[in-house]
């Protein structure tokens, strides 16, 4: 790997952490550039023009090319590695959980953590406040589905850790910060411990 | 391909259409099973137990294995085909647009089509009604980003059609049904015509 790798990120974000965790598990060094999304540092003209027209982090920069979307960045990093199954069904099943994560999990579990732990309930808009019970129910449904799936499995796909686990781990292990009770999901609890025991594991605060 | 392929679907859904379009472009036959989501036919105990615990379509059934999530089903179908770039960056960049589709595009563009054209505005809940302007703005932002990207490109990634185009085409070409004005996005208009001209192309109503 000869090209310089730079991560444009807001480090408390689980989406950014996924990329750092993937890189750490594979022993790939990353340079890090921090943006404070609470100060709209990813909505400046310079960021929108040079880094991501979508105004979002994370973006991984590979040489002079920019790749937005956390799960796409993980797929680039893990290309050809043990973190992506080679079997055709398992590879698609890994993507299945990664799309589930972005559609059913992140907009609920991550958004409530952002609203409640980072912005603060008092500073939310009326529209955000009315969405809290909807997002709570959506997040609990996603966690319930994960817990059921993990009841008789060590990892989401196959017999070892894949990007599906990394994508879902990122916001699940800090879901308590968004008011979710992880004690209600015992199979998730065992899986979280399994992920954290992987050689090369890195904490979200590292 | 020796295993029987069955698509569990609600045929007007763009997510289901993506899978039919991918299969048609690759000449892969699919058996189709229709469920009426307006009658909650994907929330029955039998569906939840046998097809998808998440209660959603589409699900592609490969022999006796079930694979939910539209973009994962497309990836399974297109494995090793011309619809997935072999280049490492382009392959991740294709996934980038597919994750963008599920996160920024579908929850806005597809949801407004479902609410306004299928459920009907009069039958919406108050909570749904208050979300219309938010989803309108989100959908317009997604379409604007796509239009800008397509200004000097024929397809989303590389020089030919990939799953990124199929994923984004599905709900974009019927966005007018959700009240979006596609006339405001000329580069999208040219790209829609390009996709529809692909050999093997199939209409959403086919």
From TrEMBL, chains A, B:
Residues 3-85 form the GST N-terminal domain. PANTHER family: GLUTATHIONE S-TRANSFERASE-RELATED (PTHR44051), HYPOTHETICAL GLUTATHIONE S-TRANSFERASE LIKE PROTEIN (PTHR44051:SF2). CDD domains: GST_N_4 (cd03056). Residues 87-206 form the GST C-terminal domain. It comes from the Bacteria. This is Glutathione S-transferase family protein.
């Amino acid at each position: 790997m000869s090209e310089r790798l730079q991560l444009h990120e807001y480090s408390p974000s689980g989406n950014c952490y996924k990329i750092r965790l993937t890189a750490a598990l594979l022993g790939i060094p990353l340079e890090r550039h921090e943006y404070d999304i609470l100060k709209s540092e990813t909505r400046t003209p310079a960021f929108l023009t040079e880094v991501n027209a979508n105004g979002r982090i994370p973006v991984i920069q590979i040489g002079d090319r920019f790749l937005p979307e956390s799960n796409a960045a993980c797929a680039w990093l893990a290309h050809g590695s043990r973190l992506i199954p080679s079997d055709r069904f398992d590879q698609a099943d890994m993507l299945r959980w990664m799309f589930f994560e972005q559609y059913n999990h992140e907009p609920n579990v991550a958004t409530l953590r952002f609203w409640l732990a980072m912005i603060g309930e008092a500073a939310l808009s009326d529209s955000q406040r009315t969405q809290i019970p909807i997002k709570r129910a959506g997040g609990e449904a996603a966690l319930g589905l994960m817990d059921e799936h993990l009841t008789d499995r060590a990892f989401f796909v196959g017999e070892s850790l894949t990007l599906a686990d990394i994508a879902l781990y990122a916001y699940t292990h800090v879901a308590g910060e968004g008011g979710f009770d992880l004690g209600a999901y015992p199979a998730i609890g065992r899986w979280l411990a399994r992920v954290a025991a992987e050689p090369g594991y890195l904490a979200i605060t590292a």
